[in-house]
Amino acid sequence: YVDIPSGRDAKDKEIFNVLAPMPISQWGHRAPADVSRNHEVTCCCCIGKGNVQARIFMDRTLISIDRDHLQIFADMDNAAGEEPIEGIEFSLHATFTYRANRHREVSRIRVGHQILKCDIKAGDKGLVNGVIALNRNLIPSITTPNIEVTYKVTICLLYTSPSPRDS
Q1: Backbone φ, ψ for residue 28 (5° rounding)
Q2: Which H or E run includes 36?
Q3: I need a surface site. Which of 6, 83, 85, 129 has the fewest CB within 10 A?
Q4: Looking at the whole model, is its pTM more than 0.85?
Q5: For residue 128, how far is the Cα from the chain centroid?
Q6: Which residues, in sequence order, are bridge partners of residue 81?
Q7: For the chain, what percentages of helix, strand and coil (3-state, to nearest 5) are there?
Q8: Rounded distance, CA 6 to CA 29, Å?
Q9: Is 90 exposed, middle or buried (0-12, 13-18, 19+ CB in 10 A)?
Q10: Which of left, alpha, beta for 158 (phi over 0: left; psi -120 to 50: alpha)?
Q11: Given CA atoms 85, 63, 60, 153 in this order, what sign does their dihedral have?
């Protein structure tokens, strides 16, 4: 049986048949998403401040939308950077694409985020663990001829803006 959270009462149950069990490799894989990119850091007037290597990975491929969380790891390599990283913002964005006849409309919203303070000095490395709580009203990822819902995780590195120097 399945306990339906939005059922008429707390004892609402439905009988169902399992057509095929989900293989453990689909939901139990430790690093299903692993992206590594090199980013050039610039300050005002596009003055170069070195490079930061960022590797983002997540611990599983499948999440339950209702009362679950998305755990994200950011492995930051600031060895070639000249400025300290003072924080990281993890965000989860949803993209809704609607198609009808030859018309297409796209809507993007941020459905969750977390800002974490960290202190990764120039020349150092650090691992930051972020957790985004998932709203129970999220729409699952779907793809149909008329509607497509996809999700994307982004990170933003936070630096202190340079203070004016006295001459």
Answers
A1: -100, 0
A2: strand 33-42
A3: 6
A4: no
A5: 13
A6: 50
A7: 5, 55, 40
A8: 30
A9: buried
A10: beta
A11: negative
- Residue reference for tokens 């999440």: 63
Rounded Cα gap, residues 106 and 143, in angstroms: 14
11 confidence band (pLDDT: 50, 70, 90): low
CB proximity list for 158: less than 8 A, separation 6 or greater: 85, 86, 87, 88, 89, 115
DSSP-derived secondary structure letter, 81: B
Amino acid at site 104 = R
For tokens 């985004």, the residue is 132
How far from 10 is each of 6, 22, 65, 139, 162, CA to CA, in Å? 9, 27, 19, 23, 56
Work out the widest C-alpha separation in the chain, in whole angstroms.
77
- Joined together, the tokens standing for residue 62 give 């499948």
Gap between the Cα atoms of 60 and 26, Å rounded: 8
Kind and range of the H or E run holding 163: none
47: Cβ contacts below 8 Å, ≥ 6 apart: none
